[in-house]
Write a structure and sequence with these properties.
homodimer, 645 residues, mainly alpha, 67% helix, membrane (chains A, B), potassium:proton antiporter activity (chains A, B)
Chain lengths: 645, 645
């Protein structure tokens, strides 16, 4: 009986799959031209029309294949991690899986599934990209990011610009030679240059994460590749606006003006929306409904992206800074459950999107039917992107090093910090080389290339696609080796950076840690107070490895789980102690400050932030709220006691 | 400067929105017929083509509007909850918001946004429905569900069938009268009957949740409305298969056979995939990578849905039972972090989908341009669905009551439980009336109605759409009042049902609770050991309301957070004690068993489950795994100690 059932289902599955592949006339996106207009009620001639049931079956199979690929990619990723194989990276495998399935789909008769799985730039920009960017912003180590902000901006803005221009010029000259009868305009060459200047934030960083590469290098490459995407999108769009117009010298400045306006407005949109969320959370009681709260946070962050894109601004920049602002302010106003939900859901969505993007790239190579491959052009482009990256990384690194050297010398002369400090290069040569190597291109380039217009669009798209896949395979596959060859510092444990893959119940709310002298080495509002001693897990572990807190395990657990109430009842005192504790922290932060002298320049913002912004945006006035103190347990407690109406 | 920026952005936004609305020729789904074929490289004539940038801007605005509606709906939901307004329900508001924005979009010139926001059945079935079903299955109170399984199946299967047939016959007769020149075939009438027999699981249940209605009534309506959807989909598809064929009497039996096969195979697919996940989790080390783990669990559950749909089976049934199986087995093999991530992500996705579905329904009323409204047909249909539901609920309730009475009398005569128990009706009259009232129709009906073929498809679609919206507004708006009128037991606290909207760190793994005599009243594997005493939050609350545990707060917290290690080290003893503790539990479960005598019939499964299935599917052989005991903290501990390779 069971056998019969299983046979029946297997038979049905094979039959349906076969039909999905063979049936040729089930395409709903391209209505056959002989069909009458939509208003004609006679449209529904049953002989001509695809049954929605069949249609749904096809889309089910397409989605099944996609999810199957995603599962394979994730499983490989687990397998690689488990076996400690680092020579092959999961993104490379994802691309290969995509290519294999793409090839199978291409070889099969029928085009319904092929059409469904083809790369769609609107789908990429609206569904796949936002989670990756949002999670990047949210998980960003803000201390490291803003400490290296100058370097990041330097590589992101002029770097991408140089790269795009160099690449555009080389391509224009090459095509002007007419060797492959590809003749593109200068604007198109620049467009391709812009698409191929977006470096990919995923592959390199997951390798860096696995090796725990020096946080500084990590942060610079991370920040660059994130902002990169936004900048090449803006550059691409700017180029497209100049299509058909004669390109003058003035248009470069016009483009730059447009670019800086776009960048700053987008940044502003993101920050304002992030602050809006913080204020909403602060001034409403929505934390009592954490389910609604976490939905709203996710939705409003996405609104930043779509609003920004809708206004012809850069959604990526907005979303990135919205994520940063959310983590910097709104995070502290959320309920505990929302803190956890938001963190995990951002991570999960980002993870799925990242893997899917590479599968999609692999699929695209075979399922996009119109591609025109010009081998020489591809080779020339592949070489030129290396040249272009070389031209942007090395001169700019020298510039950054020079700026930092001058700054440090000046600050030493001023005697601001009179210690005897050797002045190393801000970005030493091996870091520069690694940054050059980290210049593999990602899906943003391909998605942009889909927007290239003109006679040679499919030639250029094919070129971009192949070059992107090549860089991911070549540079992505050799990064681990390069880390060793270049003798880059690995195995760094960044104490600001709580590892993501362990269960932690987040930190107890920051303003509850005021009267804990033994834990107050961290700044009350900074990221650094993701203090490990706060997680239950650590408490649970205290029996086994007593290396996190100095108190005995039972003492610790008792301390930590009764503490919120002590501090809660003393919350007024805590607020009074607040400025004092911050001043005392300055001394303790000295070690860090010496390490990053440049940071002192941004100290004014930190002071402004702590004294003006945080009291406004964060929820510190607990006594007014009665039972609804900022930490969730009291809220729940009061909920149980039903002393709120 | 800032003012200028803000003005500039506002200007840009208005300009872009205006363009998005005004521009009329930016539709990419319907390529103009004069365009040459796709293979022609000259396709890219810049004058004819929509720039992908403009296209992306339009889709950004569409998405922005959608998310804005979603945010409004969620915010209203918070506002209603906060102000304790129960007369208006959030789903009704969602529909209204959708209608208002739909009207605005309809009145505006241009059709790009209108086309984008139109209800799309493939989008509904592939994106919006799965999270709702999956979360329902996962969050299901299994004890209550399977205790009332007979009633649920009775109302779901014959109930839906009766409802569809009655409705179909009434509609067929009415249209045959020819009063509105709508002349549909019997198969079409039955199709409409099937679409309008799917009751909506969202609105009623959220009201029931708010009022904490008696779990039994809740479970029956919940189970019915869930299975309902699956059954009406299968019935609809069966009807569609008979289109054009002469309907004979034999085809009814053929249809029923087809239906039962579909149902049982779908159920099997779901259960098998759920078990597969449990076995994968048990036999791999994937819990060391909770990020990958939670992605995989989500993806494999979705695979159940798409696989089932792809095989022409019922994805809903598969997904529902996959969710149930996941919670029943796989849950206990997950890492702690995945348990939390999966729970929260399912809830969040379901919440978003639920709200969105109603917004979509409201939008559809105005943005679907071809709808043909026939007022009389709509009124007749609205009345007939009440008649149809009446015909299914009341006779079947009597049947269920009779069956239970006979069963109870027999078990009393057999002396199995010789206590003096009064035999109340299984479903008393006020419950029956409430079930009748709970028959509001949902989005599944509309999504199915989009698949109706033939001359009158838009008439029938309009009818279904209006009737669905009417039932949601009328029945949904009056449910709260009916609860009072019918004197339904409210304010029930179901101790099996941990409230979702508070932060709980889930339960400590079941087999760690063996040597806790004071907490062992719960069955080690059942849902019931979501014991409140295990959540940190409760520990945190012990200071304030010492009503959960009898020990002092500090004692309690110390106990609970050091306990895992005691039990961990004694895990072998615990396993030896296991059978003994289960036997002793039978006595403690007596109270429950008396309440649900019918349950004794399913006792064999519970025994089989505990003795055979759970040892196979759950991860209990901890000693073999070295550091990787089933509870996550030791895994992480061993990770820290790096004693795994």
């Amino acid at each position: 009986m069971l056998q019969k059932l299983l046979f029946s289902i297997a038979y049905k599955a094979v039959w349906a799959a076969a039909r999905a592949v063979i049936t040729d006339d089930d395409d709903d996106s391209l209505l056959p031209p002989e069909l009458p207009g939509k208003d004609d009620p006679l449209l529904g001639d049953p002989a001509d029309e695809v049954s929605p049931i069949t249609e749904e079956m096809f889309s089910s199979w397409s989605l099944f294949i996609m999810l199957f690929l995603l599962i394979s990619a994730l499983w490989s990723s687990y397998y690689l991690a488990q076996r400690r194989i680092r020579a092959v990276h999961e993104t490379v495998l994802s691309i290969f899986y995509g290519m294999i399935i793409g090839l199978i789909i291409r070889m099969s008769p029928g085009h319904y599934i092929q059409d469904t799985v083809t790369f769609n730039s609107s789908y990429f920009f609206n569904v796949l990209l936002p989670p990756i960017i949002l999670n990047s912003g949210y998980e960003l180590n803000q201390v490291n990011f803003f400490n290296n902000f100058v370097s990041i901006l330097m590589f992101a803005i002029p770097g991408t610009f140089i790269s795009a221009v160099v690449l555009g010029i080389i391509l224009y000259i090459w095509t002007a030679l007419g060797l492959e009868s590809v003749n593109i305009s200068f604007v198109d060459a620049m467009s391709v240059g812009a698409t191929l200047s977006a470096t990919d934030p995923v592959t390199i960083l997951s390798i860096f994460n696995a090796y725990k590469v020096d946080p500084k290098l990590y942060t610079v490459i991370f920040g660059e590749s994130l902002l990169n995407d936004a900048i090449s999108i803006v550059m691409f769009e700017t180029c497209q606006k100049f299509r058909g117009q004669p390109a003058t010298f003035a248009s470069i400045f016009q483009g730059m003006g447009l670019f800086f306006m776009t960048f700053s407005i987008s940044l502003l949109i993101g920050v304002l929306i992030g602050i809006l969320v913080a204020l909403i959370l602060k001034h409403s009681h929505i934390r009592r409904y954490p389910e609604i709260e976490s939905c709203l946070i996710l939705l409003i962050a996405y609104e930043a992206y779509f609003f920004s894109n809708g206004c012809h601004m850069s959604g990526i920049v907005s979303l990135l800074f919205c994520g940063i602002t959310l983590k910097h302010y709104a995070y502290y106003n959320m309920s505990r459950r929302s803190q956890i939900t938001v963190k995990y859901i951002f991570q999960l969505l980002a993870r799925l999107s990242e893997n899917f993007v590479f599968i999609y790239l692999g699929l695209e190579l075979f399922t996009e039917v119109e591609l025109v491959y010009k081998p020489l052009l591809i080779i020339v482009t592949a070489i030129s992107i290396c040249i272009a990256r070389w031209c942007s990384i090395f001169p700019l690194s020298r510039l950054v090093n020079w700026i930092f050297r001058v700054k440090r010398q000046r600050s030493l002369q001023n005697g601001a910090l009179g210690q005897n400090i050797a002045i190393p290069d801000e970005i030493p040569y091996n870091y520069q080389m690694m940054m050059f190597w980290a210049g593999l291109r990602g899906a943003v380039g391909v998605a942009l290339a889909l927007g290239i217009q003109g006679e040679y669009k499919f030639t250029l798209l094919a070129t971009v696609l192949v070059v992107v896949v090549l860089t991911v395979i070549i540079f992505g596959g050799t990064t681990a080796g390069m880390l060793e060859i270049l003798n880059i510092k690995t195995g760094c444990i960044d104490e600001n950076d709580q590892s993501d893959d362990e269960f932690d119940i987040e930190d107890i709310r920051p303003n509850l840690s005021y009267n804990l002298p033994d834990l107050s080495t961290t700044h009350p509002y900074s990221d650094e107070n993701d203090s490990p001693a706060f997680s239950t897990e650590n408490v649970l572990l205290n029996d086994q490895n007593n290396n996190k807190t100095s108190v005995g395990p039972n003492e610790a657990s008792r301390n930590q789980f009764t503490r919120p109430f002590d501090s809660n009842s003393n919350v007024l005192d805590a607020n009074e102690d607040y400025s004092g504790s911050r001043i005392s922290l300055d001394g303790q932060n000295l070690k860090e400050t010496i390490g990053n002298i440049f940071r002192s320049d941004s100290q004014w913002f930190q002071n402004f932030d702590d004294n003006i912004l945080k009291p406004v945006f964060l929820d510190t006035n607990t006594p007014e709220r009665g039972g609804t103190t900022p930490s969730t347990p009291p809220v729940l407690g009061s909920r149980r006691n039903q002393n709120w109406k």
